[in-house]
């Protein structure tokens, strides 16, 4: 649940948040005019830019608030996406989790404050929709979908034999020897089954996430600040709690540790490696970018912003297990291992009521449903949802007022399943 | 001479700066490793990142230190640059201004700490060179070459009848009524013949540039700060000195005022307008970007970073007076007016010893030499040099230890002339 950067306040309780239509950033007029009206300015950091409804503007504009590092698409022509738009999808109906009245697919888009949604079926775009701050030429914060990019890179390195998943972290990153990560294995980090004394409870002012956020901020530290100043410095301070391997605990710092492992192993930051292994080879049509800390380290746990179609290209490449137009970009084993899933019993201990029987592997959420679906998931509704049985990829950018995906899952997960069923039977 | 942002210290006197080779950022190892060694970190803002030799890294990495705003190239394929490389250029010789020994073109590249240089002749690339922090897929700070982009946009709006160059600034921007800009004309702003009480002498701690830099910084203001907080707020405080129209005075704030005029007139920030009118239509191969202030205003006076080839595309488009592959992107009159030049007698009063007989028009430097050359120029050696007679465009990115172009002009201007002569006779 970690937000993109430091300096965010705990999310305020939203008893009755504005609707998607009423909170549309264009309707509210954020950052329009030269200058915008004083009460319509979203600046850094006084304006609390990641609070709703401001976040509905901010999710498309992180680079205007923070230093960032490019994920280059390269210099050539982008690969072409084939289109076979299906106008029947809007009318597909489903029953929200825990509900009893049916809802249409189209209604789910506004219910979930969707900013962008694209569906690929059998390699072709069958649905594409933009709203709020996003259009086809924009980039949107992927939030914790970033984690799945980090995990994908790690699985590629493992599949290629460049990274030993059984290695102890301290053998790769000596600086982490005295931290809780030191005696964890790379695989435990990749599955977030490390035992870490770390809380991301934003409502608790004593939670470790606040120290982490202060360390991660690229802004000048307050006078007298004596804490860690970078991701790396923070990670070295993390203490143990419980035993590695026992339970799944969704803690962003695992991904930052994995980003460090990837950088030390490959010689490239996650932003550069994502460009070299994925963004360039797949023919992205836009550069992407990561927010960075004060020494330029990309935020491997949540800092990526990208275009919707490019995220769809990633999803399709993952569905295709690394093959694109007959060319192999990475070993199929990287995806096969993700699809196998992680330790279900360790996952169950985390108590995700809406994800029964699921697991977490290579920083992807594996649903273990009948279709073998797996997903990248980020706060406020970001996702790459891959259904191998339906040969379907859904990518969604959103700015739901509630961070936790438990707020949008009831109108997302059954909707995805309904569209999958529709696509499989409508041919 | 304004640097990209606030928080730069006055340039230190460099009695014997490192050579181009010895100061190569790869040689010095800036920002290499995870993390880089402590004395090889260039961060924000404590590290004084725009001091030599750090600036040799920084000029390619502004976005990693500062918030930025995208200049989108769009989503299609870039236009192809035709190549006809001429290996004879390296051996072209010239005599530096004020010197007596000849120098080769090739030697001028290192003498000027060149990071990238591309020459177009009759629409084809005849020379391309990268060094230091730059490669073909990188972006480099254009510094005050940015001003010429702002001026180009303004000349386009004037030529299209959207902007009245005779209008008083106060009639377009009421917020500037009580500032020195209020009773200046748009044209006086475009030619920097406004009378402004403003000094960019970085050696003077009382110089107005420091207030300007503090206002322009996107970083949180120090506690107790009471000055202007944005470009716009600063511009409204500028006081008069002398009479408008009397003398050329190279003051960056004119360009920021012009950026404001452009935004108010067109409804688009200079970054968005540059994307819509130039970057997209010309088929750029990379996005560019601007640094921004605390409310997202792009730095019209110096904030652009771009790829070398894309800057060459701009230069070629200007040489072609707005035509690209048979399509007209803007009225030829926009360039014709720049090429006419500005008020030579007003320019002469500024005392540029190395630019005798020159003038400044539409934020371009017009040399009034035999070839009718004109140029965009930025500190530390950035340029777009256009020679209509030789049908030649030279673009240079550089990181010369001395900011003022008077330090590199002696080994640049005669070199450009020599290459022009070579290209005209070598066919």
Automatic annotation (TrEMBL), chains A, B:
The keyword Hydrolase applies. One of its GO terms (molecular function) is hydrolase activity. The keyword Transmembrane helix does not apply. Gene3D superfamilies: DD-peptidase/beta-lactamase superfamily (3.40.710.10). Keywords: Hydrolase. InterPro entries: Beta-lactam-related, Beta-lactam/transpept-like, Diverse_Enzym_Activities. It comes from the Bacteria. Residues 117-402 form the Beta-lactamase-related domain. This is 6-aminohexanoate hydrolase.
């Amino acid at each position: 649940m970690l937000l993109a950067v430091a300096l965010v306040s705990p999310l305020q309780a939203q008893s009755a948040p504005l609707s998607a239509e009423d909170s549309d950033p264009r309707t509210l007029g954020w950052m329009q005019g030269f200058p915008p009206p004083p009460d319509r300015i979203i600046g850094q950091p006084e304006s609390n830019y990641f609070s709703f409804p401001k976040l509905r503007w901010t999710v498309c504009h992180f680079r205007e608030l923070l230093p960032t590092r490019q994920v280059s698409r390269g210099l050539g022509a982008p690969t072409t996406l084939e289109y076979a738009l299906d106008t029947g999808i809007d009318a597909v109906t489903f029953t929200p989790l825990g509900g009893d009245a049916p809802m249409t697919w189209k209604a789910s888009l506004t219910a979930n404050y969707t900013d962008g949604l694209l569906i690929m079926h059998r390699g072709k775009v069958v649905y594409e929709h933009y709203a709020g701050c996003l259009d086809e030429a924009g980039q949107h914060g992927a939030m914790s979908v970033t984690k799945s990019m980090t995990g994908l890179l790690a699985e590629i390195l493992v599949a290629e034999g460049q990274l030993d998943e059984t290695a102890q972290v301290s053998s790769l990153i000596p600086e982490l020897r005295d931290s809780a990560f030191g005696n964890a294995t790379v695989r435990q980090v990749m599955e977030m089954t490390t035992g870490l004394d770390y809380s991301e409870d934003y409502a608790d002012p004593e939670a470790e996430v606040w120290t982490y956020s202060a360390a991660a901020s690229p802004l000048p530290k307050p006078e007298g600040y004596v804490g860690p100043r970078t991701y790396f410095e923070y990670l070295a301070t993390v203490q143990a709690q419980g035993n590695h391997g026992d339970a799944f605990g969704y803690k962003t710092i695992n991904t930052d540790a994995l980003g460090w492992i990837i950088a030390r192993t490959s010689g490239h930051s996650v932003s550069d490696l994502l460009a070299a292994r994925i963004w360039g080879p797949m023919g992205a049509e836009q550069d992407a970018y990561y927010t960075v800390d004060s020494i330029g380290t990309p935020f491997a746990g949540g800092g990526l912003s990208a275009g919707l179609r490019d995220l769809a290209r990633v999803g399709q490449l993952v569905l295709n297990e690394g093959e694109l137009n007959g060319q192999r970009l990475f070993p199929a084993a990287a995806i096969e291992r993700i699809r196998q899933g992680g330790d279900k019993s360790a996952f169950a201990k985390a108590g995700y009521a809406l994800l029964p029987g699921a697991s977490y592997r290579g920083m992807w959420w594996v649903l273990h449903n009948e279709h073998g679906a797996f997903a990248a998931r980020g706060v406020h509704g970001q996702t790459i949802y891959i259904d191998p049985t339906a040969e379907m990829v859904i990518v969604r950018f959103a700015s739901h007022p509630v961070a936790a995906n438990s707020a949008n899952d009831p109108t997302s997960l059954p909707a995805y399943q309904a569209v999958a069923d529709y696509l499989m039977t409508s041919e």
